Amino acid sequence: MFVFQIIILLLQLFGLALLARIILSWFPNVDRSNPIIQFLFDVTEPVLKPIRDMLPSSGMFDFSPLIVFIIIQVLTSVLRGFR
Q: What is the SS3 assignment for 2?
């Protein structure tokens, strides 16, 4: 169905935004006032923060993006099963 394809596309786009945010986190000198970078943080933070809050503290590693990637994969697989 067309609706499922749109949702899958949105999940994939969110995954790309999340990947871009992860890569940006490797560069501490990135200017966070840049509108594109601000957009990436504004879009991904509402999803990452609740997961980050649920996970136990793991020092300097943030596993919340990994959890979100797994959730995206599961949702995509489920939605593809409805076709």
A: helix
**Which residue intervals of 1-83 are DSSP H helices?**
2-25, 35-54, 64-81
Q: Residue 55 and residue 81: Cα distance in Å, rounded? A: 30
DSSP 57: P
Return the number of other C-beta atoms located less than 10 Å from residue 44's C-beta.
Answer: 20
Record the pTM: 0.89
pLDDT tens digits for range 33-71: 999 999 999 999 999 999 999 998 888 888 999 999 999
Q: What are phi and psi of 33, to 5 degrees?
A: -85, -5
Task: Please give the Cα distance from 27 to 14 (Å, whole number).
Answer: 21
3-state secondary structure of 31: coil
